[in-house]
């Protein structure tokens, strides 16, 4: 990163549609010395001001222009979360290009597919691991890729691939181009239009190859206005601002992280904090203590399981002490749930006592002591998990949306929380969310709806109704006429041999509230009863086995222990008690390996690829039914 920042040129009023790039430039003019990014390197946090960030964006944008990037060209990014991800994203939009994000865990085949499907021209690879996924194949395998920019030089400089370009050299090219063409970038930004596609967000691909959802400047602008500036969703109506901080750790190619990091940065000037790696998230969370925290259900479940593990590892006296206050937290959580997330006098007094003895230290340990708004979305979450964290005094709001509607649909508003639902339509889009009377499908119609899938007009057409409503593919129902409850994906609904319609996700989420269960997949379509494939939580079950003096060597060995089978059997029995007999899990098998994205069993967003899992473990499924 360059140390000296060039002062950005002031924009001419009324020129160019406001983009994420022009908003960043405007902040750099307005508050140049405000620190808005922090990066942890070798254990030390280093900050970047708005002036420095915009200077980097300007250099990168001019670097892209020097490489021949034209309006509408695709610029792909394959990296963990780091400042360069955001800088290249903003730079691509600044030159009216299109950002294509890849998940850090994308294997070789998915990288090849995404780069070729999007016809990426410039590719940013973080390090040797990511660059190898391109340069290990013949150049003809990526006919559109002209240059590969890399950030970490270790191991790459030995390659003689002529497409490779070091990040610092790329910025130097940008500096030279900017010196020779001082007004070109501003002229391009002034020509930005509302319907310019600014990014392709590739869908998870649970039922086939990923599709590039085209999101425009207008879509992003609408999402920022509706999601980030709705006062009703935050306590006291205090919107996010320069005093707030965010830990940026989920993949930035996912629309949710893009909203709560990049778009919240340029819209509200919150500070983004980038840790050293995805493995250091727990430590980074404790160090940053963010005021705004968004997490997918899997992260909340891991935090929840971590508390259970620490409690189990405590001395008998500490275990009794902690257990008592966790039971009190559960009561507080249930009280708050019953009051729409609000507080009764009794719950407030109980929480005050708990805060002094346990909750303050526990939230500090979790990294959530300062959190004033926390959210969850992208997948269903068990109500018990939300109750637990609400019992610790956190305001946790479940929200709902999808890539194709720029994540704009519903949200639980402050003081109107209904746990078990994904909230109500944002005030700005009342009447823009409906449930189809025939199919029960949730549908949206507003300015956040995307323009379609890149290169797939037929699949785009299938995504909309004849009157222009976006079909989400989710089955839902209204609770009390205001709040939306998602039942399941239409394609996941199980119809038993007896004709009973069952939502597997609700049962799966109930199973996953157990600290011993990492993943569960309920099976039973056209079958006589429900069964389940279950993946254990290695850390928690391993910890339990050690305390029981049960020796084991590998994940597979642990799943084959009779004691572990009995442990999971008891957890399944607890879940069965909550459901009618027809919804009970009669049989289960433990999956003998950790599910993995690279093996095709999980999407990049850690969702089960049901068909792949069914194929991979067909013998276990048949064993349950024979």
Describe this structure in words.
By secondary structure, the protein is α/β, with parallel strands linked by helices. The chain is 39% helix and 19% strand. It is built from 21 helices and 26 strands. Strands 7-6-5-3-4-8-9-19 form an 8-stranded mixed beta sheet, sandwiched between helices. Strands 12-13-14-15-16 form a 5-stranded mixed beta sheet, with helices on both faces. A 4-stranded mixed beta sheet has the order 2-1-11-10, with helices on both faces.
Please name the defining characteristics of this protein.
single chain, 626 residues, Rossmann fold, GMP Synthetase, Chain A, domain 3, 21 helices, 39% helix
Write the layout of secondary structure elements.
Layout: H1 20-30, E1 35-41, E2 44-49, H2 50-66, E3 74-78, H3 83-94, E4 98-102, H4 108-118, E5 122-125, H5 128-135, E6 147-150, E7 164-166, H6 167-180, H7 184-190, E8 197-202, E9 212-216, H8 217-228, E10 245-248, H9 255-268, E11 271-274, H10 281-288, E12 292-295, H11 297-313, H12 316-338, H13 345-366, E13 373-376, H14 383-391, E14 396-400, E15 410-411, E16 424-425, E17 433-435, E18 441-444, E19 452-453, H15 457-463, E20 470-479, E21 483-489, E22 494-495, E23 501-502, H16 504-512, E24 517-523, E25 530-536, H17 538-547, H18 555-559, H19 562-576, E26 585-590, H20 610-616, H21 618-625
Parallel strand pairs: 1-11, 3-4, 3-5, 4-8, 5-6, 6-7, 10-11, 12-13, 13-14, 25-26
Antiparallel strand pairs: 1-2, 8-9, 9-19, 14-15, 15-16, 17-18, 18-20, 20-21, 22-23, 24-25
Helix pairs in contact: 1-2, 1-3, 1-9, 2-3, 2-6, 8-9, 11-17, 12-13, 12-14
């Amino acid at each position: 990163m360059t140390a000296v920042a060039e002062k950005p040129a002031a924009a001419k009023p009324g020129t160019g549609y406001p983009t994420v790039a022009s908003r960043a430039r405007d902040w750099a003019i307005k508050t140049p010395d405000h620190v808005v990014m922090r990066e942890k390197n070798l254990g030390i946090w280093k900050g970047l001001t708005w002036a420095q960030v915009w200077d980097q964006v300007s250099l990168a944008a001019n670097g892209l222009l020097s490489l021949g990037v034209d309006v509408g060209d695709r610029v792909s990014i394959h990296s963990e979360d780091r400042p360069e991800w955001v800088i290249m994203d903003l730079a691509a939009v600044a030159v009216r290009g299109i950002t294509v994000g890849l998940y850090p865990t994308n294997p070789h085949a998915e990288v090849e597919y995404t780069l070729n499907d999007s016809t990426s021209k410039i590719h940013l690879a973080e390090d040797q691991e990511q660059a190898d996924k391109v340069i290990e194949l013949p150049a003809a395998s990526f006919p559109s890729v002209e240059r590969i920019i890399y950030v970490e030089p270790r191991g790459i400089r030995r390659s003689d691939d002529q497409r490779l370009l070091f990040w610092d050299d790329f910025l130097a090219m940008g500096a030279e181009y900017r010196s020779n063409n001082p007004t070109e970038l501003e002229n391009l930004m002034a020509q930005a239009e509302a319907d310019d596609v600014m990014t392709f967000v590739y869908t998870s691909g649970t039922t086939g190859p990923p599709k590039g959802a085209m999101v425009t400047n207008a879509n992003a602008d609408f999402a920022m206005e509706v999601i980030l500036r709705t006062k009703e969703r935050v306590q006291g109506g205090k919107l996010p601002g320069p005093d707030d901080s965010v830990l940026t750790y989920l993949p930035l190619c996912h629309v949710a992280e893009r909203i709560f990091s990049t778009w919240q940065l340029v819209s509200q000037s919150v500070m983004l904090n980038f840790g050293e790696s995805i493995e250091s998230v727990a430590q980074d969370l404790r160090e940053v203590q963010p005021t705004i925290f968004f997490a997918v259900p899997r992260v909340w479940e891991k935090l929840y399981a971590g508390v259970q593990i620490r409690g189990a590892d405590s001395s008998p006296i500490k275990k009794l002490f902690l257990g008592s206050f966790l039971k009190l937290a559960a009561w507080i959580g249930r009280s708050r749930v019953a009051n729409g997330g609000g507080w009764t006098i009794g719950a407030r007094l109980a929480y005050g006592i708990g805060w002094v003895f346990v909750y303050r230290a526990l939230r500090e340990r979790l990294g959530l002591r300062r959190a004033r708004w926390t959210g969850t979305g992208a997948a269903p979450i068990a109500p018990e998990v939300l109750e637990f964290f609400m019992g610790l005094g956190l305001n946790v709001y479940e929200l709902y949306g999808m890539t194709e509607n720029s994540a704009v649909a519903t949200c639980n508003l402050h003081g109107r929380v209904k746990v078990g639902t994904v909230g109500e339509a944002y005030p700005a889009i009342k009447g823009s969310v409906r449930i189809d009377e025939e199919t029960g499908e949730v549908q949206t119609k507003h300015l956040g709806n995307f323009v379609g899938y890149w290169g797939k007009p037929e699949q785009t057409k299938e995504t909309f109704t004849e009157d222009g409503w976006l079909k989400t593919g989710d089955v839902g129902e209204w609770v009390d006429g205001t709040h939306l409850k998602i039942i399941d994906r239409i394609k996941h609904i199980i119809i038993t041999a007896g004709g009973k319609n069952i939502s597997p996700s609700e049962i799966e989420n109930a199973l996953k509230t157990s600290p011993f269960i990492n993943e569960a997949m309920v099976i039973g379509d056209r079958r006589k009863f429900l069964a389940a494939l279950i993946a254990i939580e290695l850390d928690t079950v391993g910890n339990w086995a050690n305390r029981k003096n049960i020796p084991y060597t590998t994940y597979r060995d642990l799943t084959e222990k009779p004691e572990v089978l009995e442990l999971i059997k008891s957890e399944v029995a607890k879940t069965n008690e909550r459901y009618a007999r027809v919804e009970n899990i009669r049989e289960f098998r433990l999956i003998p390996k950790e599910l993995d994205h690279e093996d095709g069993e999980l999407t990049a967003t850690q969702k089960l690829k049901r068909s792949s899992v069914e194929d991979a473990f067909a013998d276990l499924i048949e064993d349950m039914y024979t």
